[in-house]
């Protein structure tokens, strides 16, 4: 399996926050932001793997500042670490007041995607080579996030088994 740089997966997407995207505070709906994040992360994962992908988890979305109607949001996503068939994607969202040019880090998120083969089964993905200090930091802390994901999944499985809920309803 070959190795790729993080730059090869880097995906940037910009959008204008319209009235239909906002809540009664005049700021973007969290769910709208989440959809943008999932979409840009999926594109980054497909660019890296050159395969169809599925979202395996969304570890976190940290909303750091509101985004007002009429501002733009720019999402940047790239593969921050890889497993055998999975890819962790880091997404950062920057909002911009288009009248003043002021930019603010608005949100960050970590998502995990799994690459699929022609039959829909998980398939191997290339490893990554970080190129910047930010990418190196993210890769260095990826094992801790992976450990937290496994722990969270184990806790969820315990919870579901206690409720006698079938996993595949």
From TrEMBL:
It comes from the Bacteria. SUPFAM superfamilies: Thioesterase/thiol ester dehydrase-isomerase. Residues 7-119 form the HotDog ACOT-type domain. GO terms for biological process: acyl-CoA metabolic process; fatty acid catabolic process. Keywords: Hydrolase. InterPro entries: Cytosol_ACT (IPR040170), HOTDOG_ACOT (IPR033120), HotDog_dom_sf (IPR029069), Thioestr_dom (IPR006683). One of its GO terms (molecular function) is long-chain fatty acyl-CoA hydrolase activity. One of its GO terms (cellular component) is cytosol. Pfam families: 4HBT. Belongs to the acyl coenzyme A hydrolase family. PANTHER family: ACYL COENZYME A THIOESTER HYDROLASE, CYTOSOLIC ACYL COENZYME A THIOESTER HYDROLASE. This is Acyl-CoA hydrolase. It comes from Brevibacillus formosus.
């Amino acid at each position: 399996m070959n190795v790729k740089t993080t730059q090869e997966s880097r995906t940037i997407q910009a959008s204008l926050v319209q009235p239909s995207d906002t809540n009664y505070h005049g700021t973007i709906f969290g769910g709208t932001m989440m959809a943008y994040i999932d979409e840009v992360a999926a594109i980054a994962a497909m660019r890296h793997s050159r395969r169809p992908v599925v979202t395996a988890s969304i570890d976190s979305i940290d909303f750091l500042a509101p985004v007002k109607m009429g501002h733009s949001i720019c999402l940047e996503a790239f593969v921050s670490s890889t497993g055998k068939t999975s890819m962790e994607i880091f997404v950062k969202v920057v909002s911009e007041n288009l009248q003043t040019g002021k930019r603010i880090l608005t949100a960050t998120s970590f998502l995990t995607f799994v690459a699929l083969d022609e039959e829909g089964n998980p398939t191997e993905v290339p490893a990554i080579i970080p190129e910047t200090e930010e990418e190196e930091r993210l890769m260095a802390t990826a094992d801790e996030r992976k450990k937290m994901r496994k722990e969270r999944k184990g806790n969820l499985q315990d919870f579901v088994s206690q409720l006698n809920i079938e996993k595949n309803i």
